[in-house]
């Protein structure tokens, strides 16, 4: 999914008039009417209402709220709007705007990054869920892109009998499970310190550049607490056994729908032996002293595809940049989050 940008560090914000010919007025009809008139062969580009910027004076007013509404629109040329979208893309590019090819937008200011993360997560979820998980028939985007519903009728004709528009009963239409909601996949990412809090455990994946290490990470499993997930992942990937685990901070990561839960874990005294044999995920894992960690945080951080910074000496440890939660966790450890006596 590519993001429309202005320059390299600013998202492009454009007025509704630029998109009117493609999306029409998606809020002209009531939602009930849209559900009643559902036709699975109609294609409309996905539109997501992202929220209201209440600092803006020249926007709209809804009940007690006023501000500028922000929307995300999927401009991928598809089906009935192929030509219209292609023409609009050419127009936008002729105005000096471009679509970012980068997968991660770590150079955006925090507010733009937050808008992009929300837009990307929501567009991606809608695109990946065109069918009902219960009955398998096409669903309809509702609630301004925040839910998907399985309509009881399809004017294109029911799947088993084209002469009828009534669909088969679907469990999602009753009670409180009548809609499907965007999903967020919790991921744990953790800085692991030794029992005496004087060393940090870092691991590396095979595809990373030489000397590049980071914190360990993995998906939370169903019915698992965050603390259990941290202990399990660390044991699987490195063989280290953890005692105390505390949650430090979190970061949304919409690739496609992750919430990274950052934790700091402390090894138990007889659980510090590295063993990569449980799970062949890591290329290597090592204990580093706090001095080596501090030197790398000072001179060895950069984005994954970028060159090492000017102060970096070849052969020294390389780490992710301050925009990554892994860096924040390592910085917390280097600053004495554990060893200064902070209650874990
Ligand atoms: Zn259904």
Automatic annotation (TrEMBL):
Keywords, ordered alphabetically: Hydrolase, Magnesium, Metal-binding, NAD
Record's catalysed reaction(s): a 5'-end NAD(+)-phospho-ribonucleoside in mRNA + H2O = a 5'-end phospho-adenosine-phospho-ribonucleoside in mRNA + beta-nicotinamide D-ribonucleotide + 2 H(+)
InterPro entries: NAD-cap_RNA_hydrolase_NudC, NADH_PPase-like_N, NudC-like_C, NUDIX_hydrolase-like_dom_sf, NUDIX_hydrolase_CS, NUDIX_hydrolase_dom
Organism: Pseudovirgaria hyperparasitica
Keyword Magnesium: yes
UniProt-listed Enzyme Commission number(s): 3.6.1.22
Coiled-coil regions listed: none
Any Gene Ontology biological process: NADP+ catabolic process
Protein name: NAD(+) diphosphatase
Listed transmembrane segments: none
Boundaries of every Nudix hydrolase domain copy: 182-310
């Amino acid at each position: 999914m590519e993001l429309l940008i202005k320059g390299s560090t600013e998202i492009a914000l454009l007025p509704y008039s630029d998109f009117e010919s493609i999306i029409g007025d998606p809020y002209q009809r009531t939602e009930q009417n849209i559900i009643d008139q559902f036709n699975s062969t109609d294609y409309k580009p996905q539109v997501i209402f992202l929220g209201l910027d209440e600092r803006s004076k020249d926007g709209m007013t809804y009940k007690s709220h006023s501000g500028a509404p922000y929307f995300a629109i999927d401009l991928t040329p598809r089906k009935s709007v192929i030509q219209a979208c292609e023409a609009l893309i050419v127009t936008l590019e002729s105005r000096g705007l471009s679509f970012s090819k980068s997968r991660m937008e770590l150079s955006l200011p925090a507010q733009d990054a937050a808008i992009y993360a929300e837009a990307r997560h929501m567009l991606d979820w809608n695109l990946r869920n065109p069918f009902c998980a219960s009955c398998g028939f096409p669903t309809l985007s509702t609630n301004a892109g925040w839910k998907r519903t399985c309509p009881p009728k399809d004017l294109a004709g029911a799947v088993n009998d084209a002469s009828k528009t009534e669909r088969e009963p679907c469990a999602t239409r009753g009670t409180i499970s009548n809609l499907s909601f965007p999903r967020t996949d919790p991921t744990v990412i953790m800085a692991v310190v030794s029992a005496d809090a004087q060393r940090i455990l870092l691991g590396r994946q095979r595809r990373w550049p030489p000397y590049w290490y980071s914190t360990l990470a993995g998906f939370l499993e169903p019915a698992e607490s965050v603390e259990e997930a941290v202990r399990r992942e660390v044991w699987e990937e490195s063989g280290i056994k953890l005692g105390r685990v505390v949650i430090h901070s979190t970061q949304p990561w919409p690739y496609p729908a992750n919430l990274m839960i950052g934790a700091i874990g402390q090894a138990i005294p007889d659980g510090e032996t590295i063993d990569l044999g449980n799970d062949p995920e890591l290329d290597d894992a090592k204990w580093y002293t706090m001095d080596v960690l501090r030197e790398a945080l000072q001179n060895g951080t950069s984005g994954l595809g970028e060159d090492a910074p000017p102060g970096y000496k070849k052969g020294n440890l390389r780490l992710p940049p301050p925009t990554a939660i892994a860096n924040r966790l390592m910085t917390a450890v280097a600053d004495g989050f554990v060893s200064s006596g902070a209650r874990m």
